Prior knowledge:
Blueprint: E1 7-8, H1 11-18, E2 27-33, E3 36-42, H2 44-53, E4 60-63, E5 66-67, E6 76-86, H3 99-112, E7 120-123, E8 128-138, H4 142-155, E9 171-173, E10 187-190, H5 197-205, H6 228-245, H7 253-270, H8 276-286, H9 294-297, H10 299-309, E11 313-316, E12 319-322, H11 329-336, H12 340-346, H13 354-373, H14 381-396, H15 402-409, H16 413-429, H17 434-453
Antiparallel strand pairs: 1-10, 2-3, 2-4, 4-9, 5-6, 6-8, 7-8, 7-10, 11-12
Helix pairs in contact: 1-2, 4-5, 5-16, 6-7, 6-12, 7-8, 14-16
Amino acid sequence: MSLRDYRELNAREHLEALHPAGSSGVVCYASKQAGAWFQSHGSPEWARQQAAEKEGCKEQHVSFQRYIGIRNSDALAELSALYVDLDFYRTTAACNKTQQEIAEAVLAHLDENFLPRPSLVYFTHQGLHLTWLIKPIPAHKLDQWIKVQTGLQAMLAGFGASTKNQGECAMMRVAGSNRHDTYKKTYLYGNDERYNFALIETAVSGPRIIPRPAERRGAPPATGMKNKTTLWRTNLTDIEKVLACRRMSEIPQSMVEDFVLLIVVACSWIYAPEHIVKEAQKICVKFSLPCSNLNERFSSVIKRAEQAADGEQKTFKGTIRTTRYHYTAQKMIAMLKITKEEMIRANLRNLATKDLKEQRKKQQRKERRATRANGRHNMTSSERIILGKEVDRYRNAEGLTWKQIAQLNGKSVRTLQRSQVAYLEHQAHYPNGTRIDNLENVFVILRFEFAKLY
């Protein structure tokens, strides 16, 4: 593990890595002007544009996480980064050492403790800032995130890890920005790594064993916040399926307007405000729907989407909600008069009755059981542990990236990450490692015996 594995990033590339395209929620961007702080909220695309326009300006900050409104703990949309601020200049370890030498020492320390290398390494004016980008996890896992965050700080305490302002609402300086014009330029280096949260959680605090409930049937459903963007993508796909099943000449004019309205509303949830009309027009042209003057005909829908992108919210029946237009599945079914035959013929996923959705789930469970019985499903736990041991060796001993290991094994990166987590959990239960060696010997013997038979 070395700084040679990283490349320098500019302000726009910094925002693209921290908040990639397609991310849900809004980003907080703050800047200092005339001695006063100003913060605004917008989509990830908007934040990238702000960073590009103000590149090199002093006191430019961006939030690590994304929100469903104004930046605060109660408005978290998802968690997508872990970070540690190292004030190493306050420690004895920094005596007569440069920032580059300290960074190499920190990376070596992480390697010795089998911790993943950070995705971003920021050379600030006096210290270092490390960021681990993770695949987004829902806001209800905040307690787990805090444990991992404090665990990373504890493991790097010898390098002056700061514990101030290190919560879920913290912000980081944009690449190239600094506190004063007289300070030396700051540099940000990054790679393309984005980790599974469970992998870092296991490396920091050991495997987290989740107790299996005594009775699984009839258990209450999970209460995590749904991804509204994904939901409206599904709704838009269902609307297109309904249009494909019907003849335009048979659709009354009032219902045509309802189709266009729902298409525009769906696009307001999926795309940035400036792209709503263009994407809605593409769909309308595809199905010969009237697409002229969408800006004027549905100005209220677009205006509410712009307000939501700026972080505005409204109170509805005692709850705080986004300002975007919203329709329930039952309301849309009634507006478009979708029959049960159309739901079955078009295989609608969300614009369907509850009994059809339940039938689909039962059929999917049946197919999964059949696939498992035929041996075409996931690996067994023993095979997963053995693969995880090999992956762990590739990652820690040979320093290969996930993509390189996937090319060697012919498996997806997700499968490899799960295998490594399974292996680390196994090692926690059996630290002497004898059981995994016995498993490998058993598989070798079985393969040999089957080869003799066939």
